[in-house]
Every structure is written in structure tokens, then in C-alpha cells.
Specification:
single chain; Rossmann fold; five-stranded parallel beta sheet; 206 residues; two-stranded antiparallel sheet; globular; alpha/beta; 9 helices; 7 strands
Length: 206
């Protein structure tokens, strides 16, 4: 039986973590799941994609969504007392992640997948980069000024940290929580992907 490969990429905003994940998927010939998880979760649950997009890697402590206003498929009948909050959204998306992992090899980007797949032999990686590199990448991608990009990075990282720490009971970005932490600025996107693959193969996880 062919060995199943499960790789989870956590990342600082602007570090190029998603690009690294895509490079790994391309090199190994396995699918990469990032925003695709949102669409899959919406499709599987019958909820509107909007409900998952608004809650994506965010911990909205005081927000709930009315099912009657956000249902997309009609699988759940409208009900004035029916609401879905972050916990329910997380459970639905978590099932999508575990189902995909059961089906075959995959690379997952964020969304607490390292925690959800902790008992499935996954390789857990956290991608980081110096602040100036993250700022430059975000500026190039968004057209924001240096100051605006720096603020956006802080906001996104705070949001990811709060989301991860709440649902995984762990510490986002803390080295002890991952098999490997790597600075993408040293080897670049392709080189970082190669290093992760090499590390995974030597460790018996790929």
C-alpha cells in the first residue's frame, strides 16, 4: 500500500507559507487545501460559503449567524431560533479536514489541521520570515503602503493566534508545537519546500 503523506503548514501572514505549501504539493504530486476547505465545508454542510469566509481562521467571540439568512441549499428549514456560531463552523470544517485526510495524501494550510490530525502521522511545519520580508511580500501582493502592510500583518497574526490557541488549546507559532519551524527568507519558496520535503522523508513522514 502506498504511504499516505499528510503535511500541515502553519504560517505567519506574509511569510509565503501558502506558496511553500503549493510548491510542496506540486513537487509531491498531492493536493493542497487552503481556501478550498471553505468551499468544501459549505458544500458538505449546506450552509452558504459566506458563513465560512467570515469566520475563516478568526475567533469572533460575540458573533453568531442566523441560519435562515445564510443557508444556501435549503437542506435545513428556516427557523427563527436556529443559529450557528464559531464552534459549529469549526466542527463542520474540522470534519472536512479529517475526511480529506482519511481519503488520501494532502497538504493543509492552517485551520488547526495540525491539531486535528495529530494522531494521523502528519508532518507539522510552521513557516516564518523576518518582518521586513513579510511586509515587502504583503506590499507587493496588496499595493498597501509599508505602514498599512505592517498593521495588516499584525492584525492577521493576532487573529490566527487567537483562533488557533482557542480551538487547539496550543500556542500558535511556538516551536515546541511543531515538527519543524523554518524561515522562508533563507532558502526562498522553492528551497524551503525542498527542505521540508527532505526533512519529512528523513523523518519517515513522507
Amino acid at each position: 500500500m502506498e504511504k499516505k503523506t499528510l503535511i500541515v503548514i502553519g504560517r505567519q501572514f506574509g511569510s509565503g507559507g501558502k506558496l511553500v505549501a503549493e510548491a510542496i504539493g506540486r513537487k509531491l504530486g498531492i493536493p493542497v487545501y487552503d481556501k478550498e476547505l471553505i468551499s468544501k465545508a459549505a458544500e458538505d454542510s449546506g450552509f452558504s460559503k459566506e458563513i465560512f469566509t467570515k469566520s475563516d481562521e478568526k475567533r469572533n467571540f460575540f458573533s453568531i449567524f442566523s441560519l435562515s439568512s445564510l443557508l444556501s441549499s435549503g437542506r435545513f428549514g428556516p427557523g427563527g431560533d436556529n443559529y450557528v456560531g464559531d464552534n459549529e463552523i469549526f466542527k463542520i470544517q474540522s470534519k472536512v479536514i479529517t475526511d480529506i485526510a482519511e481519503a488520501g495524501s494532502a497538504v493543509f494550510v492552517g485551520r488547526c489541521a495540525d491539531y486535528l490530525l495529530r494522531d494521523k502521522g502528519r508532518l507539522s511545519v510552521f513557516v516564518t520570515a523576518p518582518e521586513q520580508d513579510c511586509v515587502a511580500r504583503v506590499m507587493e501582493r496588496t499595493g498597501l503602503s509599508k505602514g498599512e502592510a505592517a498593521e495588516l500583518i499584525k492584525k492577521k497574526n493576532r487573529s490566527r493566534e487567537a483562533y488557533y490557541n482557542f480551538f487547539s488549546f496550543g500556542d500558535w507559532g511556538v516551536a515546541a508545537n511543531y515538527d519543524l519551524c523554518i524561515d522562508s527568507s533563507i532558502l526562498g519558496i522553492e528551497g524551503t519546500a525542498d527542505a521540508i520535503i527532505r526533512f519529512g522523508k528523513e523523518g519517515g513522514k513522507i
